[in-house]
C-alpha cells in the first residue's frame, strides 16, 4: 500500500474516532451545599450560546464534551464556576459556595446514556446555537442553517417554501409548524430576517410557556439588537 494511501486511511480513522467521541452523551447532576437539586444552572463547554440548563432535579446533558474539556457553570449573573471534566463520563457537582464546586465521577449518571440529553434536547430547551455557528454553515437563511444542528428538527421543501417540524406529525388537518418568536415577539415567518443580524437561536420542543401557540414547539431568534 502506498504511503499516501496509508496516511489517508489513518486520517480518516482519526476523523471517525473524533466524530464518534463528539456524539457520546455526557450527563451531569448539580446540587447545592445542602445536596438539593440546583435548577436553572446554565452549563456549556466552549460556546456560551450552545448550552444545557439543569432541570428541577438538577440534571443536564450535553453531547460535545471531551475528556480534557472544562465545564462552565453559570450559577448567576455574577457567578460562573469552572469544573474540569478530567476524563469523567458522568459528573456529580456540588456547589459549595464562595466560588467553589466539588466534582466527582458518578457511574450511575454515566450509565443513563442519552437519558438526560434527551430531556434537554427533546423535551425542553435545546442547546442554544450562536449566530456565528449558523453563518458558518454557508446557508443564507435561518431555517436552512438549522438543518442538521438540532436533533429531532426536520425541514422539507425548497428555501422560501419550507415546512418545519419539531415535534412530529401531530395533526393531519392542522398546521404542525412551530411558533416563531423574534426578539420576544411572535412572527409568522423568519424569512425576512438576515442571518447576519442573528445573535443566537433556540429551538424549543416543549414550548408550553407560550400557551397553545407553542403546542408545536418554538424557534426563538434573538438578534444582535434584541440582545442589547
Description:
With 228 residues, the protein is of the alpha+beta class. Helix content is 20%, strand content 31%. It is built from six helices and 15 strands. Strands 9-14-15-12-13 form a five-stranded mixed sheet. It has a four-stranded mixed sheet with strand order 4-1-7-8. Strands 3-2-5-6 form a four-stranded antiparallel sheet, with no helix packed on it. The longest helix is centred in the first third of the chain and has 20 residues, at 3-22. It starts with a helix and ends with a helix. Mean pLDDT is 78; it is low at 8-23 and 118-127.
Order of helices and strands: HEEEEEEEEHHEHHEEEEEEH
**Unreliable runs:** 8-23, 118-127
Structural class: alpha+beta
Instruction: Report, as a whole number of angstroms, the end-to-end distance.
Output: 58 Å
Helix content: 10-25%
The pLDDT mean sits at 78
The number of helices is 6
The spatial strand order of the largest sheet comes to: 9-14-15-12-13
Number of strands: 15
Q: Strand percentage, roughly?
A: 25-35%
Alpha carbon gyration radius:
19 Å
Major beta-sheet overview? 5 strands, mixed
Principal-axis shape equals elongated
List the helices and strands and how they pair.
Elements lengths: L2 H20 L3 E6 L10 E3 L7 E2 L5 E4 L7 E7 L2 E6 L5 E8 L2 E6 L1 H4 L4 H7 L7 E2 H5 L6 H5 L7 E3 L6 E3 L13 E4 L2 E3 L10 E7 L13 E6 H4 L1
Distinctive features:
228 residues; 15 strands; 4-stranded mixed sheet; 6 helices; single chain; elongated; 31% strand; 5-stranded mixed sheet; alpha+beta
Amino acid at each position: 500500500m502506498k504511503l499516501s494511501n496509508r496516511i489517508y486511511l489513518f486520517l480518516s480513522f482519526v476523523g471517525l474516532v473524533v466524530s464518534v467521541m463528539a456524539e457520546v452523551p455526557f450527563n451531569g447532576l448539580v446540587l447545592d451545599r445542602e445536596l438539593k437539586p440546583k435548577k436553572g444552572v446554565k452549563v456549556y463547554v466552549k460556546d456560551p450560546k450552545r448550552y444545557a440548563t439543569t432541570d428541577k432535579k438538577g440534571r443536564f446533558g450535553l453531547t460535545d464534551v471531551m475528556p480534557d474539556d472544562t465545564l462552565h457553570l453559570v450559577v448567576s449573573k455574577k457567578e460562573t464556576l469552572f469544573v474540569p471534566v478530567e476524563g469523567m463520563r458522568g459528573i456529580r457537582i456540588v456547589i459549595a459556595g464562595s466560588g467553589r464546586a466539588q466534582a466527582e465521577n458518578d457511574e450511575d449518571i454515566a450509565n443513563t446514556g442519552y437519558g438526560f440529553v434527551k430531556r434537554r434536547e427533546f423535551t425542553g430547551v435545546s442547546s442554544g446555537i450562536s449566530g456565528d455557528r449558523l453563518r458558518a454553515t454557508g446557508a443564507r437563511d435561518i431555517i436552512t442553517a438549522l438543518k442538521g444542528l438540532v436533533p429531532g428538527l426536520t425541514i422539507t421543501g425548497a428555501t422560501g417554501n419550507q415546512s418545519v417540524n419539531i415535534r412530529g406529525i401531530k395533526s393531519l388537518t392542522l398546521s404542525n409548524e412551530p411558533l416563531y418568536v423574534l426578539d420576544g415577539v411572535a412572527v409568522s415567518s423568519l424569512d425576512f430576517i438576515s442571518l447576519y443580524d442573528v445573535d443566537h437561536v433556540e429551538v424549543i420542543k416543549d414550548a408550553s410557556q407560550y400557551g397553545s401557540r407553542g403546542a408545536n414547539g418554538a424557534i426563538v431568534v434573538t438578534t444582535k439588537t434584541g440582545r442589547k
